[in-house]
Amino acid sequence: MTTQELIQAEVWPSVSESSGRSAPEVIDVAHLRKEYGTTVAVDDVSFTVHAGEIFGILGRNGAGKTTTVECITGLRTADRGEISVLGLDPRRDRRELHERVGVQLQESAVPELMRVSEAVELYASFYREPADGPELIAALGLEDAKHTYFKHLSGGQKQRLSIVLALIGRPEIAVLDELTTGLDPEARRDTWRLIEGIRARGVAIVLVTHFMEEAERLCDRVALIDHGRVVALDRPDALAIAATTSKRVRFTPTEPLSDELLMALPEVSGVEHHGPEVVVAGSSDLVTAVVLALHRAGIHAEDVQTETANLEDAFLALTDETPHNTNGATR
Amino acid sequence: MSTAALSLTPRQRRAFGLLVASEIKIAIRRPVGLIVAVGIPFALLVIFGSIPATTRPLQALGGISFFNLYVPTLLVFVMIALGLMTLPQQLSAYRRQGVLRRMSTTPVPPSWVLVAQTTVAATLAVIGVTILLGAGAGAYGLALPHDAGGYLVSLVALVLTGAATLGLGLFVAAVAGSPQIAQALTALLFYPLAFFSGLYVPLQEIHSQVIQDIAKALPTGAGFNALHAAFSGQSPGVEPLLVLAAWAVGSWVLATRLFRWE
User: How far is CA B51 from the centre of its chain?
Assistant: First the structure.
């Protein structure tokens, strides 16, 4: 039996089937802002998460992801903005929120000398209607490690225990922060299957990650956060297409050339000048289009270099070029 | 810190019970508390009890033996070993490792860990004190309090000494920027406080009013004075108990205001 089947068959009770779009909102964040002293951790973040959805929060370190998640889960008080989680106020209704929202945070642990099975039994006792601990342990492949002390677990095992503890309260929402960081590729794929299995039971998942691939594979929608703001929010395939199809061509023209010449081409989305060098941004057939247009105008291009964005570049491009390229990214 | 242990639902009682049980298991797996609060005082008791000269009444000590004078010191030692040298370190280790952060996302607040650890520490204190009194009286002729009043005063003095030193330890854990600094600061507090409980030399042998006055104002000195009086069949008066209560309340107010759970 696969992990996913186990989760579906035994651990999780049947929750009404729900499909992302039309499902009710379980998290509503509007204009969240949080400062630490003079540092603005979260500037202005808004998004909604629907029941049964896997919602990704993507961004680099320091972008404000973790602070956002900490405000949603009631660990921090927002300076401004409205947050509603399952209709609850995360600060005021903290206790009730924690009954219904499972959280896996970075830099969190159980005591070093606590065994896996003990931690699961203890955490199960914190909740009203806990899931079956031993079955969850088995589902996450921790059966062989259940008598191991926490400090002797491998990084991947600690991460999986962390998932068990986030799910032990049978949450309606699971918030998972940097879930697969530190896992080897195989363990990462296993974890992805598990997440999909949980979602299939109607649990909404907020997945904080800096892995583009992970967001692409798992998430129904992704909010890209940079400098405390949402710079893009869309389905991951839409984001990836917008990003991966953009290319850049650099060259040095033999004669000065007007931007209009290039902007007139349907393939071109932007032109920049860096000294004598011209950088043209645009979509797939960019090189051919640009070189042909220059040729027709009698201009020769020297040192032609093309840059094709991969996912990593796309990520960097989207977060770097705020705010003026935001529309391009979300289109 | 909310020690909301007063009105628990059956489910919360079960959660608290499991939390205490796991802290007990951890205390057995890494027996720091057992060593410092039970092992060391017991070893000191055996060493001093086995030296014939220490169990003889001495004129210089007001007609009682050095041994009878030293057991109240060892009782105070049990309390400060737990309150100052064990529990705050465990709690700040939990904070550093993210144990408290992990719990703060569950329906059970992380302050329960402190309550559970205090429960375990209290159990260790009972074991340590019982062994000291049992072995002291059984094997070395220790003079125990004469009546129920003496025992009651002793109990109150021990609880207050433990509360005051734990409050101090938590205060240090709260203000120290790092666990290393916390460790250094608690050691800095521990040695002088132990001195004023008579751990190194009986304070009765130091003929200095200044030392006596300082001892009376400190939790360890006040704790020792109350216990010594109770074990000698005298009334300690309210002063040492008030001093202890003031330290306990003051340190806890400061510690609870300053301690960060993350």
Answer: 26
